[in-house]
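Researcher: Next entry in the queue.
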Amino acid sequence: MPASSQETAPQVPKKKFFTVKTLLIILIILLLAVFGAGGYIYLKSTNNDNKKTGPDPNKLMTFSIGSLLVNLADPGGANFMRLTPVLEYEDNKQNKKLAEELTKKKYVLQDAIIRVIRTKKIADVQPPQSIDKIAVELKNEVNKNLHEGQIYRVYFTEYLTQ
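Model: Structure for this entry, 162 residues:
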Protein backbone atom coordinates (compact mmCIF):
# COMPACT_ATOMS: atom_id res chain seq x y z
CA MET A 1 0.00 0.00 0.00
CA PRO A 2 1.23 3.39 -0.81
CA ALA A 3 2.53 5.38 2.02
CA SER A 4 0.40 8.17 3.14
CA SER A 5 1.54 11.71 2.69
CA GLN A 6 2.22 11.95 6.37
CA GLU A 7 4.74 9.15 6.33
CA THR A 8 7.48 10.62 4.29
CA ALA A 9 11.13 9.73 4.46
CA PRO A 10 12.96 11.36 7.27
CA GLN A 11 14.62 14.57 6.10
CA VAL A 12 18.34 14.83 6.56
CA PRO A 13 19.25 18.26 7.90
CA LYS A 14 21.44 20.19 5.40
CA LYS A 15 24.94 20.92 6.73
CA LYS A 16 26.06 24.50 6.44
CA PHE A 17 29.53 24.81 4.94
CA PHE A 18 30.22 28.25 6.43
CA THR A 19 29.78 27.58 10.09
CA VAL A 20 31.44 29.75 12.69
CA LYS A 21 34.13 27.13 13.23
CA THR A 22 34.94 26.93 9.50
CA LEU A 23 35.05 30.72 9.13
CA LEU A 24 37.36 30.99 12.12
CA ILE A 25 39.78 28.42 10.67
CA ILE A 26 39.81 30.20 7.28
CA LEU A 27 40.42 33.54 9.00
CA ILE A 28 43.36 32.13 11.00
CA ILE A 29 44.92 30.64 7.85
CA LEU A 30 44.57 33.95 5.98
CA LEU A 31 46.11 35.90 8.87
CA LEU A 32 49.06 33.52 9.04
CA ALA A 33 49.60 33.85 5.29
CA VAL A 34 49.45 37.66 5.42
CA PHE A 35 51.83 37.91 8.39
CA GLY A 36 54.18 35.36 6.84
CA ALA A 37 54.33 37.25 3.54
CA GLY A 38 54.75 40.57 5.36
CA GLY A 39 57.58 39.20 7.47
CA TYR A 40 59.32 37.79 4.43
CA ILE A 41 59.10 41.10 2.57
CA TYR A 42 60.33 43.02 5.62
CA LEU A 43 63.33 40.73 6.12
CA LYS A 44 64.15 40.82 2.43
CA SER A 45 64.13 44.63 2.38
CA THR A 46 66.28 44.95 5.51
CA ASN A 47 68.86 42.58 4.02
CA ASN A 48 69.05 44.75 0.91
CA ASP A 49 69.51 47.88 3.04
CA ASN A 50 72.56 46.34 4.71
CA LYS A 51 74.36 46.06 1.38
CA LYS A 52 76.65 49.01 0.91
CA THR A 53 76.70 50.98 -2.24
CA GLY A 54 80.01 52.18 -3.51
CA PRO A 55 83.35 50.52 -3.94
CA ASP A 56 84.50 47.30 -2.32
CA PRO A 57 86.70 48.33 0.66
CA ASN A 58 89.07 45.45 -0.06
CA LYS A 59 89.78 46.72 -3.57
CA LEU A 60 90.48 50.38 -2.79
CA MET A 61 93.75 51.80 -4.08
CA THR A 62 95.33 55.21 -3.49
CA PHE A 63 97.51 57.51 -5.55
CA SER A 64 99.34 60.48 -4.04
CA ILE A 65 99.49 63.62 -6.15
CA GLY A 66 102.39 64.96 -4.09
CA SER A 67 102.73 68.09 -2.02
CA LEU A 68 101.49 71.31 -3.63
CA LEU A 69 102.11 74.91 -2.53
CA VAL A 70 99.50 77.24 -4.01
CA ASN A 71 98.94 81.00 -3.71
CA LEU A 72 95.36 81.85 -2.83
CA ALA A 73 93.19 84.45 -4.58
CA ASP A 74 93.33 86.96 -1.70
CA PRO A 75 94.42 90.50 -2.57
CA GLY A 76 98.11 91.13 -2.05
CA GLY A 77 99.05 87.48 -2.59
CA ALA A 78 100.13 87.06 1.05
CA ASN A 79 98.08 83.90 1.69
CA PHE A 80 98.96 80.45 0.45
CA MET A 81 97.98 76.86 0.96
CA ARG A 82 100.05 73.71 1.20
CA LEU A 83 98.21 70.46 0.54
CA THR A 84 98.92 66.87 -0.34
CA PRO A 85 95.89 65.27 -2.00
CA VAL A 86 95.60 61.50 -2.19
CA LEU A 87 93.19 60.04 -4.74
CA GLU A 88 91.24 56.89 -3.88
CA TYR A 89 89.82 54.58 -6.53
CA GLU A 90 88.54 51.03 -6.77
CA ASP A 91 90.66 48.43 -8.51
CA ASN A 92 87.94 46.88 -10.71
CA LYS A 93 87.12 46.17 -14.36
CA GLN A 94 86.12 49.77 -15.12
CA ASN A 95 89.36 51.11 -13.62
CA LYS A 96 91.80 48.54 -15.06
CA LYS A 97 94.12 51.11 -16.60
CA LEU A 98 93.44 53.91 -14.13
CA ALA A 99 96.65 53.46 -12.11
CA GLU A 100 98.70 53.76 -15.28
CA GLU A 101 96.72 56.81 -16.41
CA LEU A 102 97.14 58.50 -13.00
CA THR A 103 100.91 58.02 -13.22
CA LYS A 104 101.06 59.34 -16.79
CA LYS A 105 98.80 62.33 -16.07
CA LYS A 106 100.18 63.23 -12.65
CA TYR A 107 101.31 66.66 -13.81
CA VAL A 108 98.02 67.36 -15.60
CA LEU A 109 96.15 66.44 -12.42
CA GLN A 110 98.45 68.60 -10.30
CA ASP A 111 97.77 71.51 -12.65
CA ALA A 112 93.99 70.94 -12.44
CA ILE A 113 94.16 70.92 -8.64
CA ILE A 114 96.30 74.06 -8.55
CA ARG A 115 93.84 75.86 -10.83
CA VAL A 116 90.92 74.99 -8.52
CA ILE A 117 92.75 76.00 -5.32
CA ARG A 118 94.10 79.18 -6.97
CA THR A 119 90.52 80.52 -7.27
CA LYS A 120 89.89 80.16 -3.51
CA LYS A 121 90.34 82.80 -0.85
CA ILE A 122 91.61 82.07 2.66
CA ALA A 123 88.02 82.29 3.97
CA ASP A 124 87.03 79.51 1.52
CA VAL A 125 89.68 77.00 2.62
CA GLN A 126 90.37 77.72 6.29
CA PRO A 127 87.16 76.65 8.11
CA PRO A 128 87.13 72.95 9.09
CA GLN A 129 83.91 72.25 7.16
CA SER A 130 85.54 73.54 3.95
CA ILE A 131 87.80 70.49 3.66
CA ASP A 132 84.94 68.26 2.47
CA LYS A 133 83.77 70.85 -0.05
CA ILE A 134 87.29 71.24 -1.46
CA ALA A 135 87.69 67.44 -1.64
CA VAL A 136 84.46 67.05 -3.66
CA GLU A 137 85.41 69.91 -5.96
CA LEU A 138 88.86 68.41 -6.57
CA LYS A 139 87.38 64.96 -7.18
CA ASN A 140 85.06 66.36 -9.85
CA GLU A 141 87.89 68.30 -11.52
CA VAL A 142 90.25 65.30 -11.49
CA ASN A 143 87.55 63.01 -12.93
CA LYS A 144 87.07 65.43 -15.84
CA ASN A 145 90.69 64.75 -16.81
CA LEU A 146 90.50 60.95 -16.59
CA HIS A 147 89.40 58.61 -19.39
CA GLU A 148 90.29 55.14 -18.05
CA GLY A 149 88.18 55.27 -14.89
CA GLN A 150 87.03 57.50 -12.07
CA ILE A 151 88.35 58.29 -8.62
CA TYR A 152 86.03 57.69 -5.71
CA ARG A 153 87.31 60.13 -3.09
CA VAL A 154 90.04 62.68 -2.33
CA TYR A 155 91.87 62.63 0.98
CA PHE A 156 94.39 65.11 2.31
CA THR A 157 97.51 64.02 4.14
CA GLU A 158 98.53 67.67 4.43
CA TYR A 159 96.21 70.68 4.50
CA LEU A 160 97.82 73.90 5.71
CA THR A 161 96.81 77.50 5.15
CA GLN A 162 98.60 80.74 5.91
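Model: The chain has a mean pLDDT of 85.
Researcher: Noted, moving on.
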